[in-house]
Structures are given as C-alpha cells and as structure tokens.
Amino acid sequence: MKKVLLNCVRALDNSISNSFGEIRILFIVRNTIGMASLSPLIKEFLNRGNTHLAITEEYSGCYQWPDEGEVSEWKEKYFINSKASTFKKWHYVFISDISLLWFIRDTTKVKISHGWAHGTSDKKSSKKGEFHYLKSLIEDNPADIYFHNSECDYQFLKPFFKGENSKAHFISGYAKIDSLIAALDSSSESQIEILGLDSSKPTIVICSHFNPKSLYNTFNYHIIESVLASNNYNVLALGHCNLWREGKNTLYNNIEKLSEKYTNFRFIPNLDDNSPILKSADLFIGDTSSIFFEFCVVDKPILFFKHPEFEFESEDIANFYTQAALPFSKIEDIDELIKKGLSEPQKQQQERSRLIKTFIPRRGGVSKYIVDTIVEIGRLSGPNTKKWNKAISLSEKSVVVQI
C-alpha cells in the first residue's frame, strides 16, 4: 500500500513538474577533471537562460573550489550541498564520474565522459579480474542518457550495456574540448609570460596518469628533473588529480621542491581548465592518460611513455598512441627524443590529424549539441515518464549517423 501511494505521489509530482516552469538541471562535481568536463556545459546552459541550474559535490570536500574566477562565482550563485540536492526536483542530473547520490524524486541521469578515450585500461589488469572502471561506470552506476565521445567510443562500450535498449545514446563528442578549442582560437596573453618564464625557450608540458604504470609512478619526479637538467627548456608539470587525491603526498612534495631548484620550472597540479597551459606547449610528454588526445588537438610533438608491461585494452587505441607520438620506455632516451621532436614538429602531424578526425565529431560545438538536445527533449523525469519516447527517438537518429 505504501509503495502504491508513493508511486502515485511521484506520478503527480512528475506530471506537474514536467508541464510547468523551467528545466531544472543539477551538475554533480567529484574532482577538478569533473569540473573541467562539466564547465563548458554549465556555461552553455547559463548563456541560454530559461533553466534553473545548480551545482553540487559528490560528497563534501571532494572538490577544491578555486578562490577566485568564474568557477568561484558559480559556487556563490549556484552551489547546493549534496544532501539538500537529493530532496529537490531535477529534470536532469549531469554526472561525469561514478556517483552514489540517490534522489528522492524522479530524475533523468545524464552521463558524459570525463576522459577522451576508451580502451586505455591495462588489459593485463582486466584479465586478472581487477576493478574495471568503464564496466563499473555502466553496470554498477547506470544513467538514462549517455553522451558518447565518438562513434567508435559508443561501439566499444556497447557490450557493457548487455543489449539494454531502454537507454538513450548520443554521439556528441567530448565537452571539455570546447574549452581547449576556445583557448587555441583566442589571442589571450601567453601563459609563459604570465608564469614569468623565458619566452625564448621552448616549453615542454609533462603530464601523468595515476595508474601504477604511469609516467610519475614509474619514474617519480626524476622524469621531470631529467628534462630540466639541460636548462634549455621551460617545463610545466601537470598530473591527474588522483595522484594527490589525499593531499600533498611524497610525490607532490618532491615535484614541488623542483620549483625551488629550477627557475625554468612550474608545478601546476590542480587546474579546472588546463587549456591555456596546453596552448603554450612546444612539446608534450605523457603516458596512457587520455589527455594525450588534447595534446593531439594542440598539434605539437608528443613523447609517449610506453611502459614495457602495459598492454592497452584496445589495440586500435594503442596504435593511435604509438603512431601519433615518439614512444620511449627509458628515461635515458628523453633528451634525444626531445631534440628530435622539436626539430621535426610536423613529423607525426598526419597521424595526429587522423586521431582527431576519428575522435572529435564536433570541433568546438560539443556543448552546444548537448544543450540543444536537452532543450529539444524538454522537461523530463526519467524513462518512466511520457516524454521518454522523444529522447529515444532523438537517440536513434544520433547513433546511426556515421561521423
């Protein structure tokens, strides 16, 4: 009896909220990468108007809000604590990662990616039955609407849905790319000058994933110091936020100390938008992290750390990485490869271009496409409401298009 009554109340709630008022949208932020992925959408929705928008954290303290700037202003205007958010009515809840928040009232969960590529996990770990992020993201943490990075991304993930046809899938592209494209197209002041570095020197950007076979976890801070040793380059060090998720650890402190020793070095660990930093690079050094795809968009030489014991889950993705970059496995090879990359910056340009054509269906227009889709569907309270057929119909048109 209680369940029947509750269902009746929800049906009434859905009927009223789906018929009147603004589209109500909540964004769940888990970390800096999540904010970077969601912020282009937040901007697009705010520019459109006619929506009630709010931002919450997956749990209190999981995201370090900046003290100033646009995102800081968003906190003042749109932030709601996670517990309170679960009692509010939302037509759409946007998620870019695993989320355990449960909402009292019916809503439509929308999942976008917070990374470029599928198939970048270690195949050996998957064979051992270790935690599989993408599998868990889909099977243990399902959404109602999925915006995929590319057609091949959708095809790779399709088996994880196990024939489930009640989901709406859209080939949108990766929203975070919009920020990078905007930075590349802008004439803003050089980050090298803002950071107080010598603009006559080539700039090298180094970034690492957090997996056990990543760049930093293999070589520690020595990979950075090996590049700094010659004093011929500006060096900017980034890193996946999970490398120092629990705060300043030994790795963090060791990298930070390099700033005291080398005037041509800057450590930039937690950025919501690293686009201006990437734009300033003359060469990149990275690993299996999907920021590799952003390196390709900037279209500068890439040194790719190929761990001898790492096997890509997708052979196609492995080929994209190795063909669009200069692979290395030993720290001793870095110096000569940097010289080679800087002297022949166009060498792998064709391969980088091929990767972009495969994985970037809408250059700079991803957020617009996603927001257009949500606005076209309109107020919706999940797959059990009347308008869900409209979402499915639009979805079917999207996934059959060969991009």
Can you describe this structure?
- The protein has a six-stranded parallel sheet.
- The longest helix is centred in the N-terminal third of the chain and has 17 residues.
- It has 19 helices and twelve strands.
- It starts with a helix and ends with a helix.
- Strand 8, helix 12 and strand 9 form a beta-alpha-beta unit.
- By secondary structure, it is α/β, with parallel strands linked by helices.
- The chain folds into two domains: 211 residues, Rossmann fold (3-Layer(aba) Sandwich), CATH 3.40.50; 171 residues, 3-Layer(aba) Sandwich (Rossmann fold), CATH 3.40.50.
- The protein is globular.
- It is 42% helix and 13% strand.
* The CATH architecture of the largest domain: 3-Layer(aba) Sandwich
What overall form do the CA principal axes indicate? globular
The count of strands amounts to 12
Beta-strand share of residues: 5-15%
CATH third-level topology of the largest domain: Rossmann fold
When the domains are counted, the total is 2
How many helices? Answer: 19
**Largest sheet strand order:** 2-1-3-4-5-6
- State the share of residues found in helices, binned by percent: 40-55%
What is the rounded distance between the termini? 50 Å
Mean pLDDT over the full residue set: 89
